[in-house]
Amino acid sequence: MKLSTYAKNLGISYITAYRLYKSGELNGFQLPSGTIIVQENDNCAVSNQVVIYCRVSSSENKSNLDKQAERLQQYAIAKGYKIYKVIKEIGSGLNDTRQQLEKILLDDNYSILLVEHKDRLTRFGFNYINIMFRKQNRTIEVVNYQENTKDDLMQDFVSIITSFCARLYGLRRTKRKTEQLIRELEKQ
């Protein structure tokens, strides 16, 4: 891959990547046109590659999403990780059909999933995802294990009640429609 692409994927400046190439720390060569091509060892690349996952609950907090991504990128660079992807998503932590999260869970080209807080990944079921990752010889790295505040717990409680109410009323509606369909069929 081109040195500029390599630098961008790693989250470093082109100048820094060029210095690494000149010092011999990067495996690569220079084309007659002057373009520098970096050759990565696939086994080594995956073992140190990280996906950064950032999430906020609503679009009102979108500015926090960018700040979250920036903090995690700085953390990854300081730890010496190769940044494979930065995923930003807006959606509830209770929602189990987040498209961006599903894509990265199915992707095998990284070994570390980096999140700022445990609840940024999911509100419930974190341990199940963590077990799945360990079975695949991958890890979830949580930067800040801050405990939930009272406001967070209340928000979770309201979200759970809302979710269950929606399911309950949806079931009632479905039952009424089914009963209506049966009555119509019996009339015929």
CATH domain topology of the largest domain: Rossmann fold
Strand content: 15-25%
pLDDT averaged residue by residue = 83
Could you state the CATH homologous superfamily of the largest domain? Resolvase, N-terminal catalytic domain
Per-chain topology:
Layout lengths: L2 H8 L3 H9 L5 E3 L5 E3 L3 H6 L1 E8 L5 H18 L2 E9 L8 H8 L5 E4 L2 H4 L4 H10 L3 E4 L7 H38 L1
Parallel strand pairs: 3-4, 3-5, 5-6
Antiparallel strand pairs: 1-2
Helix pairs in contact: 1-2
What does this structure look like?
The protein is α/β, with parallel strands linked by helices. The chain is built from 8 helices and 6 strands; from the N terminus they run H-H-E-E-H-E-H-E-H-E-H-H-E-H. The strands form 2 sheets. Strands 4-3-5-6 form a 4-stranded parallel β-sheet, sandwiched between helices. The chain has a two-stranded antiparallel sheet with strand order 1-2.
List its traits.
6 strands; four-stranded parallel beta sheet; Rossmann fold; elongated; 16% strand; 3 domains; 188 residues; alpha/beta
Quick rundown:
The protein is of the alpha/beta class and 188 residues long. It is 54% helix and 16% strand. α1 packs across α2.
